[in-house]
Amino acid sequence: MLKGSLFLFFFSIATIDCSFGQSKVDSLNSLLSTTNDDSSKVEILLKLAAEYQYIDLAKSIEFLDNALKISEEKNLLYMKAFVYNNKASAENIKGDYSTAIRYDDQALSIFFQLKDSAQIVKCYNNLGTNYYGLGKFDEAYFYHTQSYRMGKSIGDKLQIAISLHNLGSVFKELGQYDKASDYLKLSLSLSKEQKDEEAPAYFYSEIGDLYMRKNQFDSALIALRSALTFSRTVRLTINELEPIILINIARSYLHKNDRSLARAYYDSASALFKKSENVFVLAKTDLGRGLVLLSEKKYKQAQALMEQSAETAHRLNAWTLEVECYKELSRLFEEIEDFKKSLYYFKRHQAVEDSMFSQGMQARIFQDQIRFETSSKDEQIISLTKQEKIRRDQIRKQDLVQNILVVTTALTAVLLFSVYRSGQRRIKINKLLLEHQDEIKKRSQELEQLNQVKDKFFSIISHDLRSPINALSGILELMAKDQITPDEFLALNKELRLQFGHTKTLINNLLDWTLLQMDKLKIQVEKIDLHVLADNNIKLLSSLHYKEIKITNEVAPLSFALGDSNMINLVLRNLLTNAIKFSEAGDLIEVAAKLDGENYIVSVKDNGVGISPEVQKILFEKTSGYSTRGTANEKGTGLGLILCKEFVERNGGRIWLESELGKGSTFFFTIKKGA
User: Fold this and answer.
1) What are phi and psi of 525, to 5 degrees?
2) For residue 673, what are the β-bridge partners?
């Protein structure tokens, strides 16, 4: 669970001690029975709910429901928002993150009406935390960045630290460990400035998890033990963080093959979670205990716990846990040589993982990340600009003082000359410094772009090359065991051919993309017969695709152009492939070329699904990599159109499109006319 995920809000009543005290409960019940003020009743009910929150959750929810009833009947808008917050916290404790999100949205709506920026910041943070629990990391990233921005605008340094911590947790889940570590360390530093005693416990808990994902289990155990010590020292809510630390310690020991300690820590975590009635975390514990049994070859018991955990995860829409359950179940059935069930769970694992880490989600995170980091850099630039202005003002003042001293003291000609030369040297140095700053800024932008290209490259390799290879491996295993019928093989063969056709195109595009970025592709201008080029590509693609689509060549014979034949061939093939991908069976695709002054305008027209105006704006952007599935569920990488744009521009042309949803698309590019 992320730092700052649970909030209990009150008006005039001081923050309560979460330890259960019967005398305090009796006192609150007595106060509740004697007060006539509705607002005071709601406040007392919130306090009672807090007292029971980790002791008897059902009782706590009963108090919250009574508080909500009074708030709604008396239209106590502000109180109702706080009750919604507490209802969300209760659902979070139960592991029902979807319901928690619904209550947080209701609270956020009211705080927007009331223009309460401080509570809006906390609601954003809560929403990000709950989306993180569901495995929807793009939504989590969005809300945590919103929390950070608003926290910064109102000067709430504690909320800034919490938001940075939670952003570090999101980057950890996305596998960006260095960036995650930087955010977590920055959060800890800011938290210490605010004297937040809980911060070290959350920090070491996340760092321990990060080390574990990097397979550095000894370092993970050191960090997790520190987290456990800090959580007990500052008496953090025992049900909030300590069980998570215990689970991660158990996982570390399991990876080190110490089953007895792993089981002991899982049992301790399970005992704590049963008190909070958190079915999500109980499911995580069941999965961990199942893994211990799997390592001991106790397959039936392990299977029961894992399937129970998977069922709970699916019911709660907890994608992260669901993916992990399916992966481990696939491994279990592979060990007992039940390859059909192993393949079944592998496919479910792959389907949920593809939904979690879809290219749309990654693109949204990528774009949000660029906007967030760009805004941060803009703030730094503004700060530097102010400092530069102050520095220049100081220089002007110094020059003025020097001139006054020269006039009033009537220094000798030598002294005047010396002061003059000194001023000139300073101006020259300042000029050189400004030029150096511009050069550093330019290099920084180039490095950032190269880093984006690298991230895009590895993202595509990890998600688009893994699936067909794994599918082929599973089928070969089934064939080796004679566990696949000829009819099943024919069906799988067709699917594999489609997947490997996509993979072949992907590899070719990746290689061309890489060479292009390394500036290894050189333009070799030659005479190109556009009619023949179009004809060759039509014949090639007509023999490969499975849709009954007619492609006509409207390019006039002997239409000669000048350019790199290989590059123009790749552009035309990519545009035709896209047209096929987004056309229905029986549709018509037309390739044409017409003279426009000294250039040919080549066009590829289809009457397929069309493209929305919003998507048209980003199709050719290098940092977008936008892709969607075709009419027959064909996959793409988002590289094809980017390559087309760069290859056309390398040949001195330009590329654009015209499209309308439901009415098809036409892509155009220009190329110089041949002699």
Assistant:
1) -70, 130
2) 561
